[in-house]
Amino acid sequence: NAGVTQTPKFRVLKTGQSMTLLCAQDMNHEYMYWYRQDPGMGLRLIHYSVGEGTTAKGEVPDGYNVSRLKKQNFLLGLESAAPSQTSVYFCASSTVIAGGKTQYFGPGTRLLVL
Amino acid sequence: GDSVTQMEGPVTLSEEAFLTINCTYTATGYPSLFWYVQYPGEGLQLLLKATKADDKGSNKGFEATYRKETTSFHLEKGSVQVSDSAVYFCALRDTGNQFYFGTGTSLTVIP
Questions:
Q1: Rounded distance, CA B26 to CA B97, Å?
Q2: Which of A7, A93, A102, A104 to mutate to test the interface with B (most CBs of B within 10 A)?
Q3: B40 vs B31: CA distance, rounded Å
Q4: What is the count of residue pairs from A and B with beta carbons less than 8 Å apart?
Q5: What average pLDDT values come out for chain A (114 residues) when binned by 10 residues?
Q6: Does A89 touch chain B (CB under 8 A)?
Q7: What SS3 string covers A42-100?
Q8: Which of A4-13, B27-36, B86-95 has the highest mean pLDDT?
Q9: What is the largest CA-CA distance in chain A?
């Protein structure tokens, strides 16, 4: 199993450009999450999904959109990138099996918006 | 709302020193508690977890006990190694399966 993978690993954008970050998991997990990590702020939840075809807003959803068309994939889109979106983005997934459900993280995508 | 507060770093220790990283939480209901570790350039990895009060999570010499009376989940290790240098995150999962992370504590262990 590859676990959670993210594409791309690194990207540079100009202000106003758009892009899509792809997260894929092969563990048949129901839940998937997108976080951003900024210095001194830990991880902040952007959007999450509790199943195929469903999405919900997290703590910092503005400027981002997501889609979960397939259970194994969770896409994060930036329609018009801003320098404030420079960050490291992490995807995670987890099961709904009861009892201390654990999140599994991808390796991250470093995004620089100029 | 639910939240996690952990001690700010950075923390610098000599090899074989004792480590404590404090973590306290605020939550309604009965959350599960986690410690994650992030090595440079990598994603977060689960280090240990505890799902109910008085549970002790342990892994790789690290331990943390779920203390409901003090709403704490402090991370400890008796003798740190250089390879333990990383950023450590305390986290909780609420009854709605949402995760809340602390801001992270950077640990550097020097030989």
A1: 15
A2: A102
A3: 29
A4: 50
A5: 90 96 94 90 89 92 96 96 96 72 87 96
A6: no
A7: EEEEEEEEEECCEEEECCCCCCCEEECCCCCEEEEEECCCCHHHCEEEEEEEECCCCCC
A8: A4-13
A9: 44
